[in-house]
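Incident log, entry 3
Record: Transcriptional repressor (159 residues)
Problem: checksum mismatch between cached and fresh output.
Input:
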Amino acid sequence: MRHTDEAPAVAEALGLLREKGERVTAARRAVLQVLDDAREHLCAEDIAERVDVAEPGVHRATVYRSLQSLTELGIVAHTHVPGSATIYHLRHSEASRHNHAHLQCTTCERFFDVPTDWLAPLGDRLRQDLGFELDSQHAALLGTCAECHKAASEARNEG
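Fresh output:
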């Protein structure tokens, strides 16, 4: 039964679980809700802490297992972050507010979200030339942000 306060992306994700013959548990529902509510990037520890507030009876290990199974089912995506914990978010969907890829500055380590369609030309080129399917949510693209690039240029000019 659908909870009336479920966000559209959570309802869609729960529907996918049911379609796949999977159980909708309090832990899975809470994980999905935490991910949908998040305005920042969350690692498994962050998610477990927020689930503990929302559903105090859900054990931390259950949250980790839920994240793993939701990822394996393709409902949750994870992004590997060099030198840091993996972050999680809902997979791309019509209802999800979180359709983005990640950039990370290697100098200041800040994250930047970019629309996934910005990477579509790259994905098309990789598919056409190499037969390679890009998963733009799986890893952060590394580079230097504008602020750090400017600071480095100014430092070179002063030296």
